[in-house]
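DM from R.C. (forwarded with permission)

"hey, sorry to bug you on a friday — could you get me a structure for this? deadline for the figure draft is monday and I only need the backbone to look sensible"
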Amino acid sequence: MPYDDSVPPTRRARPLLPAAVLAALCLTTVAGCGGSPDTTDGAGADASPSATPTAPASPSPSPAEPLPRGPLTGRTVVIDPGHNPRNREHTEEINEKVDIGTGRKECDTTGTSTDAGYPEARFTLDVSHRLRELLQAQGARVLLTHDEDRPFGPCIDERARIGNEAKADAVVSVHADGSAVGNRGFHVILPAAVKGGGADTSKIVKSSADLGARIAGHIVRTTGSAPSNYIGGGTGLDTRNDLGGLNLSTVPKVFVECGNMRDPKDAALLTSASWRQKAAQGMADGIADHLKG
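My reply, with the result:
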């Protein structure tokens, strides 16, 4: 769930539909929304609230270890795991408003959860760890905006700043939505053209749209999940002008809403470790596709 997810649809920008978007999504035939939930890993729809998903068995190289050389050698990717599992303990701090260039928004939110209690913040960290490993295997330098190594946050303005200061070639913010039952599928949020205060997305709108389109196309292929049936008009893409993490970015950046945690069918997928690995693979493939041009 993005930090400003309560913003009414009327404040959303109209979906951006570049040719690259249509091409990416047309590469795969989609039958229905989502694949069959995988319950063989013991993390199906009935996962308990206390269950903490684990990262892939093979650990990621530590920062001190040399990265393998690969097609993404020399590239920097920042992964932004949505929310922080400890935000719930710091509601006063995360409710403090910060400048997003065009106004002020809360520092962060707690995120959503499945009806069984699996928190979005746990989901986003798990997927981010998987995504980091896949990108590092291709030689990319990968940074996380946080790794549950701080009491709360970071705030939305700092999340953007981390990507900017890293001079990232791409930034992906990992989320899951909290919508009504029956609303299913993933969508990728793209930055609108925004200029005001400290926000100016004019240089990243086109490149971010390409990044988002490629990620959307690859998520369809790797997971079998269809684009959202309630946001984006079937494209899997939604352009917004009200998210500080996008407004303040000076490098290509998108948000990926991997599914709707409040729908039981989507929740069965999001709580499946094997599905999360497929989602991470789709994001990794889309990022690599974008960076290779």
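R.C.: lifesaver. Residues 3-18, 27-62 have pLDDT under 50 and may be disordered.
me: no worries. The beta strands are 76-81, 97-99, 104-106, 141-144, 170-177, 187-191, 195-196, 199-200, 237-240, 253-260.
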